[in-house]
Amino acid sequence: MAECRASGLTAKAWCEAKDINYQRYVTWASKLNKEGQHKPQQWADVKMEREERATSG
């Protein structure tokens, strides 16, 4: 799937160029996408700094 996306071609055109059955590709791509939705998300640490507000005087 990554190679297909990186090619810049439509999935159907990529499959034709690689002699891959398009329906089979769609079936596997759908399955992998569904599996990927159930993976836990990764979180990143974020440090927030307080912004100083200018006072008008």
Would you tell me the structural class of the helices and strands?
mainly alpha
Shape: elongated
The count of DSSP E runs of length 2 or more, i.e. the number of strands, is 0
User: How would you spell out the order of helices and strands?
Assistant: HHH
Mean pLDDT, to the nearest integer, reads 84
Q: Helical residue percent?
A: 40-55%
Poorly predicted runs are: none
Please name the defining characteristics of this protein.
57 residues; mainly alpha; elongated
Summarize the structure.
The protein is mainly alpha-helical. It is built from three helices and no strands.
Polypeptide structure, described:
With 57 residues, this protein is mostly helical. It has helices spanning 2-7, 11-18, 22-36. The radius of gyration is 22 Å and the shape is elongated. It starts with a helix and ends in a 21-residue tail after the last helix. The model has no long low-confidence stretch (mean pLDDT 84).
Set out the fold topology:
Blueprint: H1 2-7, H2 11-18, H3 22-36
